[in-house]
Specification:
heterodimer, A: about 80 residues, elongated, B: about 325 residues, two-stranded antiparallel ribbon, 14 helices, globular
Chain lengths: ~80, ~325
Amino acid sequence: MEHRTERSGESMYKHALLVVLSLMPFGVSTVVALTAWEAFEVLAPAVRLTVAVISWIIAFAGATRAFWKAVEVITPW
Amino acid sequence: MVTFADALVGVAAVTLAAFSSYSVARYQSSKFASLGISGIDVHKPDRPVTAEMGGLAVLFGLAVGSTIFLFADFPEDGSFLSFAVGASTVGLVGVVGIADDLFDIRQRYKPFMIVAATTPLMLFLLGRGSIYIPVIGSIDVRLLYPLVAVPLAVTTSANFTNMLAGFNGLEAGMAVISLGTLSFLSATTGSLTVAMLGALLAVAYLGFLFLNWYPARIFPGDTGTLTAGAAVAVIALLSKLEFVAVILSIPAAMDFTLKALRRRPFGGRKIHGDAAVEPDGTLKPAEYPTLVHAFMKVSPIKEKGLVLSILSMQALFALVAVAVTLRFM
């Protein structure tokens, strides 16, 4: 019984950790997109926005891949 | 200015939308399985046959709630038109979902059918040419807004919701959180009529959720998932809260990205099958990356726990959306 309680606590901790970790792709990609927006000030607004959106998508894909790597590190059961 | 009579009409509309959705879903759950409109609940050890196409109950709830809401006194600023256009666009996407549930439309045709369903919204927003992004501000994109951003947003959101699905209470729970958040933010930013449309949809999904929660007596089907995704995009576009829809779509976007980044994009389920279920109900992930498999991989989890974890994630993003909106709008 004690073992089960301990395991369930650890389980909840790991799932809560994943929930918090899921903020990472959004955070990273938003910072990258805002940086791209600032960096390409000379471009027309629509082109500048396109560059920022493409940067956001690429950064989001990379960070989501990193999220999956983190899942593999957090111990498979 | 909202009068007491309008508030009363609003409360009646919301209550009846929830009650109608629940009642129709209850009727469907007892009849649809025998009519062959059903699916197998693959995440239970005994794999029960469960009624499908529960989204129909949500659409019915929306129709009843909208009809009652027509008795409210609309201001003469185009609010009524935005409500009608929003409701009809969501309804048309729902019709695409019904067709998909009944005739199993090929995946390649679905996006085009959803784009066609967004026509009323595209026409209504033809005069809008700018998009607001927090920190950056308003950007002039002219015709790209109604002709590209609007159909792209609705189609993407509908398909995202259709992909992160398949567990009791997941789709309806996510719809309640997303639509509830959007409705609240629409109200705080002054789009009261659009907020009411969001509230009607949120409570219709809530009524349905009572029967879709673990152990489910009915599934939403494509009618429920496509409608939920389209509704999120429609409410966001009408109330100029496009970035909120983006934030609320992050969990589904992560799931989409994990499936897309494989050597054979989106082929994981065909090759490896669904997650396996142990006799005690614990889920074992199939060998390909998805958001739900991430939770199954790190620690033992059952279906109800998994759904609660993903809904917590959705709630976290809803909080982020509220914080960003209140800070920058």
